[in-house]
Design goal:
GO terms for molecular function: serine hydrolase activity. The protein is of the alpha/beta class. It contains eleven helices and nine strands. Bound molecules: L-tyrosinamide. L-tyrosinamide (TYC) binds next to helix 6.
């Protein structure tokens, strides 16, 4: 963080980046073939583009896939592995030579966030490990707590999990907070990561984010439909406690770490990185992917014009195809 400590607020400082296209290194546009009609949502009266709208959409889409007792289209094993003193739950499928770790977003877990990848990515090419970070999903106990370095801790748990499962080298797909912990893992363990696919991540907390937290913090403003999947997963009390913890720790990162989530890790990411940019992501403004693209050495950004925060769920077929093409190329080059 030392390098950036002179900046009063990173978000303000780097806002100009989103207007400055000369930072683009390799950038591709993707056409979303899916043309689903927009859903009508209840309660909170969100307008398109508002953070709650995106959250609601994520919840609705994940609730479609969230029924944990539903038989899966393919065999997925639910397993536990003790790492760093706790039992980490993970889902495993596939028998391919290429190990791929999936890292979920805030409050999410393997089954809520990656049902479409667990069922959709090739089981012949990949061995897929989707992890529930500690305190999320079925990686309880312990309950989750919120040290300011909670994403570093998730990164260490994930690296330890893959080591314990005897995967010395693997690729990672990381979404949102999972993208952030994945960038930390890759920066700290460059020798272990074959390639990286990230989307919905943010490497710093900006003024914009602080305003966003104010809008989404109060659970009373969430519609029942929005809350229900989390309540089903965690129960009302634990969900409320976790959400408060997550919002608080973002503020702590802003105040105590000058907003730095994982900026220092970016130059240490040596592997080839595919950054999928949901152009309509209402949670993560465009300055964030542009910043990542600028600071990750070997980074290709693909713009998804219709993509929102949950693009891997909404456009799962296209997303999986894009990820597979990238993963396969990187894997063949390292052989
Ligand atoms: N990182 C959050 C997640 O994992 C999404 C998010 C990003 C929320 C930025 C707010 O300002 C924000 N779902």
């Amino acid at each position: 963080m030392a390098r950036f400590s002179s900046c009063h607020r990173l978000g303000t400082l780097f806002k100009h980046i989103s207007h400055n296209s000369q930072h683009l290194k390799a950038e591709t546009n993707i056409k979303s073939s899916s043309s689903r009609s927009m859903h009508t949502f209840l309660a909170v009266a969100q307008t398109r583009g508002s953070p709650l709208f995106d959250l609601e959409e994520r919840c609705k889409l994940t609730s479609i896939t969230r029924n944990l007792s539903r038989p899966s289209a393919r065999h997925i094993s639910s397993l536990k592995q003790r790492v760093n003193g706790i039992d980490i739950h993970y889902e495993k499928t596939g028998e391919g030579d290429h190990p791929v770790l999936l890292m979920p977003g805030a409050l999410g877990c393997a089954r809520t966030d990656f049902e479409h990848q667990l069922n959709g990515l090739s089981r012949e090419k990949y061995t897929i490990i989707a992890m529930d970070p500690r305190g999320y999903g079925k990686s309880r106990p312990p309950d989750r707590d919120w040290p300011v370095n909670f994403l570093q801790r998730d990164a260490e748990d994930a690296a330890a999990l893959m080591k314990a499962l005897s995967f010395p080298r693997y690729s990672i797909l990381g979404w949102s907070d999972g993208a952030n912990s994945t960038m930390i893992l890759s920066g700290a363990n460059p020798g272990n990561v074959i390639s990286l696919v990230i989307w919905g991540g943010n490497s710093y907390v900006s003024d914009h984010d602080m305003k966003l937290y104010k809008a989404i913090e109060n659970l009373e403003k969430w519609s029942p439909r929005m809350k229900q999947p989390f309540v089903d997963l965690y129960g009302e009390e634990y969900f409320q406690r976790m959400w408060a913890g997550w919002c608080n720790v973002q503020r702590e990162i802003f105040n105590k770490r000058n907003g730095d989530i994982c900026i220092g890790s970016l130059p240490n990411i040596k592997c080839s990185t595919l950054l999928v940019n949901g152009v309509k992501d209402a949670l993560v403004p465009q300055e964030q992917p542009l910043f990542l693209q600028k600071h990750i050495v070997n980074c290709r950004m693909v713009n998804w014009p219709e993509g929102k925060h949950n693009l891997h769920i909404r456009y799962s077929k296209e997303f999986n195809a894009l990820a597979e093409e990238f993963l396969d190329k990187e894997f063949s080059q390292q052989l």
